Amino acid sequence: MCAATLHLNSIFDFSYRQNQPYNQSAFHSHPNYEVYYFHSGKCNFLIGDRIYVLAPGDLILMNGMTLHCPKIDPNVEYVRSTIHFEPKRLQPLLGTQTELPILQPFQEMGNHLLRLSEKARTEVERILEHMHDQNTRHDVVGSFRARLAFVDLLTLIYELCLHPLEHVNAQSTAKEKTVQQVITFLETHYNEDVTLDQVQKHLHVSKFYLSRMFKEVTGVTMFEFVYRRRINQARIEFVLDPSVSVTDVCFRVGFKHLAHFSRVFKELVGVTPVQYKKSLTATTVQ
């Protein structure tokens, strides 16, 4: 099995049945929407302050700017299909007289998991396969039919969200529920001077046990999670207000020293905060 990543005239990016190994510590975000379909494997998916224990056939709607990361079992092949898209670039295909607000689930539900029925799962997989088959024709007609199939998928998702299937926290173990509580606490206090003692006091669980359990379930330490959450929030702040200063964002997201903020930002994003701000300005100008 191999992955096929397709760039359909910049309207969306489609990775079909991708099965390459995943960087376990790669919390990430992106300024667009995502449709994520889980074919097979064993995966805890962290999105913001939630943990989803996935089952084959699960479909996730995602606001990409929310920090997210799959924690997979490396002993089980991890197969997924993903579609990233920007609503504005999709609009010309939808036209101005769209009868159904098919993007409403992404706009109003934020990050949402659908556990599909067997019938819905079969239909989603059929559409994904059709998108892949059409685009691998490498001609204009195939590319256009792949886009139409994507609109069909969005329409199906809209229909499923009108009558939501029981959207699950999946059957979380006691350990996963405790880690979920930790993530919720960290999500609320990420921009404060969080300590293990505070988390222990809040949850009434040994901090040593919490540390070990958090790493086991998520693949990162609590403080790696906090740093990544802070940097993700900094990116959001820069996107929302390109004129905001690096210093203001540094303190706003919980760092005490600008040099530390800049160093961690570059480690996680690949560029300094100043370079990141410039890249946003350049994109806007274009």
Automatic annotation (TrEMBL):
Gene3D superfamilies reported for this sequence: Homeodomain-like, Jelly Rolls
SUPFAM superfamilies, per database record: Homeodomain-like, Regulatory protein AraC
Pfam families: AraC_binding, HTH_18
Keywords associated with the record: DNA-binding, Transcription, Transcription regulation
Coiled coil regions in record: none
Domain HTH araC/xylS-type: 180-279
Highest taxon of the lineage: Bacteria
PANTHER family, A to Z: ARAC-FAMILY TRANSCRIPTIONAL REGULATOR (PTHR43280), HTH-TYPE TRANSCRIPTIONAL REGULATOR EXSA (PTHR43280:SF2)
The protein's name in its UniProt record: AraC family transcriptional regulator
